[in-house]
Amino acid sequence: MQSISLAERTNALKQSDIRAVTQQVNAVDGINLGQGICDLPTPEPIRERTRQAVTDDQSIYSHYAGIAPLRQAILQKAQSYNDLPATDIDEVMVSVGSTGAFVTAAMALLEAGDEVILFEPFYGYHRNILELTGATIRYVPLSGPGDTLDTEALERAINENTKAVIVTTPVNPSGKVWARHELETLLDLMQQHDLVAITDEIYEYMLYDDHEHVSLASLPGAYERTITLSGFSKSYNVTGWRMGYAVAPPHLIEKMGLLNDLFYICAPRPLQHGLLAALEDLGDEYIAQMQSDYAARRQMLCETLEAIGFDVPWPEGAYYVLADFAPLQATHDGFENDKAACQTLVQDAHVASVTGRSFYQHPEDGRTKLRFCFAKELPILKQACTQLRTALA
Ligand SMILES: Cc1ncc(COP(=O)(O)O)c(C=O)c1O
User: Fold this and answer.
1) Would you place residue 101 in the very low, low, confident or very high pLDDT band (cuts 50, 70, 90)?
2) What is the side-by-side order of every strand in the sheet holding 320-324?
3) Smallest CA separation from ligand 1 atom 16, residue
4) Helix or strand or coil: residue 4?
5) How far away, in angstroms, is 35 Cα from ligand 1 center?
6) Fewer beta carbons below 10 Å: N end or C end of the chain?
7) What percent of the chain has pLDDT over 90?
8) How far apart (Å, rounded) are the C-alpha atoms in residues 139 and 150?
């Protein structure tokens, strides 16, 4: 068939390696620690309220920024947990996942000629969505747990075209949690250069070893130049429901809301009613339990990776480990680079991971790294750890 010429914006888009590795691991009936898919059950109160919403036939479009009670509940959460100075539901927009909110934020702010700062290792969707806006991305390294922001590198990346900066905390893939002093330094530069931040705080409740989640927008003077994004996917095990939100000053939310209306009309209405249960019925106890469950999983996976020879920066937050297999290269075959190592683990341990190159502008920078996700049912994670230990004994 004659090929049709497509828009230039699609040129850089390609299927990520993750899907191919998923197929390979499925073919050997293995365990997928690659994709950031959480296989834990959705809490019953959320399912119950959603069933009720369907029974009550809550089926027509909602307001494009979401139903008022959900926006109100998100506003209260943003005030109490994130310490944001938001005061009204016109500062809250519900969208189709935090990804939907990210798309509207990026489209509202950025266009060709603008520059945007992205820290690496980065989350691939951020890079690809930013590319679609036509803006130029400047990459600034931010290694991982324990490492601090390189202020000089950040300053070098800023010029008169820089408009925005993307801040993910906790970071997927490295597990770094931004410290308050780093956010203060960033804010200083944002104010000097008149920049806006889009934050992605989807892992805000997944914290270890007393690490504190600080929202950039809670710092004095930051709220007016920050779009804060989060969502329900990760904290409430509803990744497939596609429900997330943005909190920002009203003039930003107004335009983002209009874009949200254009792209999606609204987030799925019965699920909006159902997720009220997340904010109203599942309180501190639920979060504390989740944190201790993930801490146990983190320990199991990190100890396993260390035992088989990886260099493991233990994540401070989120549910991924970006581990370095360089020490294994001297003792094992099949670890020449990240692609080879990923293949070796699928073949020998029947465990999937993600190649380090997926998180860097230059594939070389992720050459000796693999990302593992530990959001798995405990017996499955245990089995994966056993398989890794057996294969690399
Ligand atoms: C950093 C980050 N942001 C956003 C998402 C997706 O969030 P949502 O399901 O709310 O679109 C993910 C999923 O892996 C993620 O890792």
Assistant:
1) very high
2) 320-324, 369-373, 354-355
3) 172
4) coil
5) 11
6) N
7) 90
8) 12
